[in-house]
Design goal:
The chain is α/β, with parallel strands linked by helices. The chain has helices at about 15-20, 70-80, 100-110, 125-135, 150-160, 170-190, 195-205, 230-245, 260-270, 280-285, 305-310, 320-330, 345-355, 375-390, 410-425, 430-440, 480-495; strands at about 5, 25-30, 40-45, 50-55, 85-90, 115-120, 140-145, 165, 250-255, 290-295, 295-300, 335-340, 360-365, 400, 445-450, 450, 455-460, 465-470, 500-505. The structure holds guanosine-5'-diphosphate (2 copies). Belongs to the TRAFAC class TrmE-Era-EngA-EngB-Septin-like GTPase superfamily. EngA (Der) GTPase family.
Length: about 500
């Protein structure tokens, strides 16, 4: 499991964050006498992520400041070396202090990846500190309010990108909840409640699980399971408005070497680049560039930057799966760029599969369109190969571009926003169950062990990408072909093209 160390001078909020992440599941691992406070370690949860967290608070709290060095070298250094990721916390209200710079000096030299977390950023209180934090030379700082929970989704993205585990147990919890709802529905029906009332009761149970920490930032939840379609549509609109205005849409451009990724990045950023950090030199460390495009915020994951970094390590320049995967994990939407001169190749399919496996929304960009002579033949062949190799993401948007000429690049960005909306889509439980009834009437599931299989209840358990739980009388007996029928039906009926749609089957008895 990923281990995260919380590092920073006293009073920046390490313990507060630790407590928020770990809650009561604390295990004290180091109570060596002489250490001012115990080094605390615990299993943390954030949404559906799970990881270990080490709180170094107290390790550097000592009487004699001249001792700081020694103490930091020994204790904090161990925590840093043992960790997979360091969250270097500073106080956004206080700004950068000499003590912060001292830590930064140390952290610039360690091998563990470091993310600067500017705490106490509730409201706009930390804006100054956030701007100053670029000056630490440790890449893009991330705002947070450990005390109030603001920007938790940014933290989620960072941790998720660094490989914190998604907890399957939470999916089970969702299923259990949905099952409880199904039971309530049956009980209500038995008690003679009329249809509408039964439905109302049933819909009160299941909720989005995992991401419920995020209602502060508006993008993930604050959507009621029993909301009607209008409310859901309004929530979707709000999320979209939010993503354009305040929160950046995170896009990664991936593809084989020579597909034209750098050319596209240069074209896009050359036009209207707006960096959030003041010093261009510092952004070299960042793996992403923030960019304002037609009034919408976009964070472009800089795979070219990752490659530059790799080259310093003397690694030969080639498509690295690790690097690509890292970019994919950072992104909401992934643009897979293919070279029209070469068509869809095996390596492209490998990347596409990575994107789908990671649950990201996919847009296919066919670059060097200026070299294509028979457009129709090209597209026919492309669609044929895609439906063959990637049936699980039927309807992937395909945008033909010329990165060199800057042709159609706006359409590519629009397609990213469109697919992001779909990736976030939520369908009400009421509507899903009315739909399921029609689906099973039109094409009844087969018999198994002498009894007809029954699909009793469906509920959406997650978004980003959409995931559904279906309660089935004998889940193991349900043929794959029937599952495909349901998934394709979901995609068509609820307009979910181009994103992975996941379905888990649960026992309803
Ligand atoms: P540590 O020494 O780094 O572990 O810091 P603590 O977690 O003990 O926090 C130091 C002080 O900052 C406490 O008074 C916290 O209540 C406060 N604090 C922590 N996080 C925040 C925050 O997000 N916003 C504000 N305004 N105060 C915070
Ligand atoms: P990367 O390795 O994916 O970053 O690819 P580059 O951006 O370095 O591009 C590889 C080559 O393809 C360069 O020689 C580019 O000039 C060329 N190229 C990029 N985009 C286009 C395009 O739209 N049309 C044509 N004809 N060539 C392009």
């Amino acid at each position: 499991m990923l281990t995260v160390a919380l590092v920073g001078r006293p009073n920046v909020g390490k313990s507060t964050l630790f407590n928020r992440l770990v809650g009561r599941r604390i295990a004290i691992v180091d109570d060596t006498p002489g250490v001012t406070r115990d080094r605390r370690m615990g299993e943390a949860r954030l949404g559906n992520l799970r990881f270990n967290v080490v709180d170094t608070a107290g390790l550097e709290e000592i009487e004699d400041p001249s001792d700081l060095n020694a103490r930091m070298q020994a204790q904090t250094r161990t925590a840093i070396d043992d960790a997979d990721l360091v969250l270097f916390m500073i106080d956004g209200r206080a700004g950068i202090t000499p003590s912060d710079e001292h830590f930064a000096d140390l952290l610039r030299r360690v091998e563990t990846p470091v993310v600067v977390v500017v705490n106490k950023c509730e409201g706009r209180a930390g804006d100054m500190g956030l701007a100053e934090a670029w000056g630490l030379g440790l890449g893009e700082p991330m705002p947070l309010s450990a005390a109030h929970g603001d920007h938790t989704s940014d933290l989620y993205d960072v941790l998720s990108a660094h490989g914190a585990a998604h907890a399957e147990a939470l999916e089970d919890a969702a299923a259990a909840e949905a099952e409880a709802a199904a039971a309530r529905r049956r009980a209500a029906a038995r008690a003679g409640a009329e249809g509408a009332e039964a439905e109302e009761l049933a819909e009160h149970g299941p909720r989005e699980v995992g991401l419920d920490d995020f209602d502060d930032d508006g993008s993930d939840v604050d959507i009621d399971e029993d909301a009607d379609e209008e409310t859901l549509a309004a929530a979707e609109e709000r999320a979209m408005a939010e993503i354009g205005r305040q929160k950046a849409l995170q896009i990664a451009i991936v593809g084989r070497p020579n597909a034209g990724k750098s050319t596209l990045m240069n074209h896009l950023l050359g036009e209207d680049r707006v960096l959030t950090g003041p010093e261009a030199g510092i952004t070299r460390d960042a793996i992403a560039v923030d960019w304002l495009h037609a009034g919408r915020r976009i964070r472009l994951i800089d795979t070219a930057g990752m490659r530059r970094k790799a080259r310093i390590d003397d690694r030969i320049e080639k498509m690295s799966v690790d690097e690509t995967l890292r970019a994919i994990r950072f992104a909401h939407v992934v643009v897979l760029m293919i070279d029209a001169e070469r068509g869809l190749e095996k390596q492209d399919m490998t990347i596409a599969r990575l994107i789908v496996d990671e649950g990201r929304a996919l847009v296919l960009a066919v670059n060097k369109w200026d070299t294509v002579t028979d457009a129709d033949a090209f597209m026919t062949e492309l669609r044929r190969r895609m439906s063959h190799v990637m049936p699980q993401v039927k309807g992937v948007p395909v945008v033909t571009i010329s990165a060199l000429a800057g042709h159609n690049t706006d359409r590519l960005i629009d397609a990213c926003f469109d697919i992001y909306r779909i990736w976030n889509r939520r369908v009400s439980t009421g509507r899903l169950n009315r739909w399921l009834e029609r689906m099973t009437e039109n094409y009844p599931p087969p018999m198994a062990n002498g009894r007809r299989l029954r699909l009793r209840y469906i509920t959406q358990i997650k978004t980003r990408p959409p995931g559904f739980a279906i309660f089935v009388s004998q889940p193991k007996e349900l043929p794959d072909s029937y599952v495909r029928y349901v998934v394709n039906g979901l995609r068509d009926s609820f307009d979910l093209p181009g994103v992975p749609v996941r379905v888990v089957l649960r026992t309803s008895e």
